[in-house]
Design a protein that fits this description.
Layout: H1 3-42, H2 47-97, H3 101-115, E1 121-125, H4 134-144, E2 149-155, E3 160-164, E4 170-173, H5 174-193
Parallel strand pairs: 1-2
Antiparallel strand pairs: 1-3, 3-4
Helix pairs in contact: 1-2, 2-5, 3-4
Length: 195
């Protein structure tokens, strides 16, 4: 995200928080005024004591409403930040899929070469059968001196590859890889986005 977009997002969050806080304060003051009016009307014997008690209750009510508005603002701000981080990771995964076809094939080939084992079936994601062909897999097989088979089916994922074997499967889809690294780098990404 560009700094301008971050500023716009931050400005929107702050404006919404200020508007919400102002509305809550106004509502609390109106409620306090009504409460105060009711106490004044019903107070007969000790008017001064009842009035002071009503003012104290009004202050407590205002303080309580302000505290609640602060929690709501924090919750909304956290939700907006989480959305921005989600969007950043989704854009990164999309950019991986939209790489130059030769670069993309190179990335997938390196993944298969690093993790492929004799007898594995290579399962490609939707749309990758146009970029990664049986001859690509045959070339990797030959280079590694192992038997790899290209699955006739496409996996229910976008980008990356799955290596299926009779003993264990290896999930090298972009979704899986980004999910694993997200836990490690999410605090750094959030810090960069929200400086």
């Amino acid at each position: 995200m560009e700094k301008n977009k971050e500023k716009i997002l931050t400005d929107k969050i702050i404006a919404a928080a200020e508007n919400r806080a102002a509305a809550l304060i106004k509502n609390a003051e109106e409620t306090a005024d009504k409460h105060l009016a009711n106490v004044k009307a019903s107070a007969s014997a000790d008017k001064e004591t009842a009035l002071n008690a009503a003012k104290a209750q009004a202050r407590d009510l205002i303080d309580h409403r302000l505290s609640l508005s602060g929690l709501e603002i924090n919750r909304d701000e956290l939700k907006a930040k989480r959305g921005a981080v989600d969007k950043a990771f989704a854009e990164a995964a999309l950019r991986m899929c939209e790489r130059d076809p030769d670069e993309y094939v190179s990335v997938i080939s390196r993944m298969i070469k690093k993790h492929g084992r004799d007898g594995d079936t290579v399962l490609l994601g939707r749309g990758d059968e146009k970029r990664i062909t049986a001859s690509t897999i045959a070339g990797i097989s030959k280079a590694l001196n192992i038997k790899l088979t290209l699955s006739k089916d496409a996996g229910d994922f976008t980008g990356g590859v799955m290596l299926l074997s009779k003993y264990s499967d290896k999930n090298l889809t972009f979704e899986s890889i980004f999910r694993m690294i997200r836990e490690e780098i999410e605090p750094e990404v959030a810090k960069t986005l929200f400086k």
